[in-house]
């Protein structure tokens, strides 16, 4: 007999583990989709602190995945991530 396994939804995982671990379990395609949602939210809401934190975590995940594949792309992304980090710092200090 198999032991029952509790399946946790991605929404529950986001709540319990944080954005970094949530983004870490996504496929590359799902990560792209999440990033598109974040960009749409930033376009609509402006510089919202929570959305910027999600953007920072998503870009960090992209960087981690890309640095193993192509340092050229990873370095480009690192520059963008640093810009987002600076904006997050400005918004969260308000």
Provide tags for this entry:
single chain; about 90 residues; mainly alpha; 5 helices; about 80% helix; globular
Word description of this protein:
The chain is mainly α and 94 residues long. The chain has one domain. It is built from 5 helices and no strands. α2 crosses α4, α3 packs antiparallel against α4 and α4 packs antiparallel against α5. It starts with 9 loop residues before the first helix and ends with a helix. The model has no long low-confidence stretch (mean pLDDT 75).
Short summary of the structure?
The chain is mainly α. The chain has helices at residues 10-17, 19-25, 28-45, 49-67, 71-92. It has five helices and no strands.
> Strand tally, please?
0
> How widely separated are the two ends?
56 Å
Low-pLDDT regions: none
Largest sheet: none
Proportion in β-strands: under 5%
Radius of gyration: 15 Å
Global outline: globular
Helices, by number, come to 5
Number of structurally distinct domains: 1
- Tell me roughly what share of residues is in helical segments: over 70%
Average pLDDT confidence is 75
SSE pattern: HHHHH
From the helix content, strand content and strand pairing, which structural class follows? mainly alpha
């Amino acid at each position: 007999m198999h032991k029952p396994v509790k399946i946790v939804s991605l929404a529950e995982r986001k709540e319990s583990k944080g954005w970094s671990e949530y983004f870490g379990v996504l496929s590359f395609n799902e990560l792209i989709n999440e990033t598109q949602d974040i960009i749409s939210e930033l376009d609509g809401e402006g510089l919202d602190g929570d959305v910027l934190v999600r953007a920072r975590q998503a870009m960090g995940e992209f960087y981690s995945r890309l640095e193993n594949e192509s340092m050229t792309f990873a370095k480009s992304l690192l520059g963008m991530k640093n810009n987002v980090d600076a904006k997050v710092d400005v918004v969260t200090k308000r």
